[in-house]
Amino acid sequence: xxxxxxxxxxxxxxxxxxxxxxxxxxxxxxxxxxxxxxxxxxxxxxxxxxxxxxxxxxxxxxxxxxxxxxxxxxxxxxxxxxxxxxxxxxxxxxxxxxxxxxxxxxxxxxxxxxxxxxxxxxxxxxxxxxxxxxxxxxxxxxxxxxxxxxxxxxxxxxxxxxxxxxxxxxxxxxxxxxxxxxxxxxxxxxxxxxxxxxxxxxxxxxxxxxxxxxxxxxxxxxxxxxxxxxxxxxxxxxxxxxxxxxxxxxxxxxxxxxxxxxxxxxxxxxxxxxxxxxxxxxxxxxxxxxxxxxxxxxxxxxxxxxxxxxxxxxxxxxxxxxxxxxxxxxxxxxxxxxxxxxxxxxxxxxxxxxxxxxxxxxxxxxxxxxxxxxxxxxxxxxxxxxxxxxxxxxxxxxxxxxxxxxxxxxxxxxxxxxxxxxxxxxxxxxxxxxxxxxxxxxxxxxxxxxxxxxxxxxxxxxxxxxxxxxx
Length: 471
Hints:
Largest sheet: 12 strands, mixed
Number of domains: 2
Oligomer: single chain
Structural class: alpha/beta
CATH superfamily of the largest domain: Alpha/Beta hydrolase fold, catalytic domain
Radius of gyration: 22 Å
CATH topology of the largest domain: Rossmann fold
Order of helices and strands: HEEEEHEEEEEHEHEHHHHHHEHEHEEEHH
Shape: globular
Strand content: 15-25%
């Protein structure tokens, strides 16, 4: 029956909504830095979205290394906004990584990631919004984007991609991402759900979504950083109580006339300004250049990914900084042989950066809590996980909005283990409307992008969740 449907599905590519066919896909068998033929199927390409397809979104698609026909399909949304899909591909959930020990500033060597999520799923890594990674616009006007417009672009992209890949239309789909991508994930998932309800083709087999250390409501996420710092012994009981009482528990945009509150926040900042907000156990890198915009080390920075985006090197007498590893991606993605292998269109992105800080981007959705509620009410499954050593979006901020949803506790706080060792803690919530579950999990020792710090544990977490096993 499935084979009989294929000609009809191919016909849909030309029939619906005036869609133009996606660019011919390019299969990439070899990549500079990797010795030999890639042991997995990698496809790259562009798909046009927006008015007259002026926005060209670039993607990397990796087929599951297990059973592509039956395994679920994930679309991965990196954070930022403006961080390239290569962030997820190389540093988090993708099949390759850099050989950092041998990296000397020249073209880095690539190594296989034994904990890639492609062990259990097909994954589309999408460069979004326009201006991120290798995605570009044919016009200057097209570079303006926002939460809502990029969500619509992502939805159009996914529909076109599936029409061009009809063999994956029936695969279970999960929208996935972390950090600021965790804000766009529920927006895209709800857009897909509404499109299905309206009968828009193709009907997408959306089953749920996953978000890690997700931006949800910027002000409320940031507000929990001080209580989190107190829990982690970064500030004293006295300092916390002074701030809590004088600021009345509101630490974001304090009253400029409230001198006692401002002083309490200043003292806290003095204690925490040299703590790495993305993994509190990691070092702060010495910088060669000045910090880019948004890279201040104050305790309440804006929720922007990659604040350490400058080139920085530690001396030979100092331990290496985690952020130094990001330099390898800049060297690799700007190499001409790499661009040729990836089939990047010449002249479209002169200088690739891992996280583009110069986007013309409007943050037009303040909170996505209602999106999570709408998805729960519609019966979609959710996995929400948090690296528990992240201050930027602390796990207590995530738990706070989860407990505001119309859900009931189904399984109370307990440890989950990998190979007999505690990997984190978990709670399970059940929707009061539909037979849907939201699983929350901490990843012990994980930072802001948990798979980057705890890859083995995160793969096992995802494997169990996709298989409907408890953690």
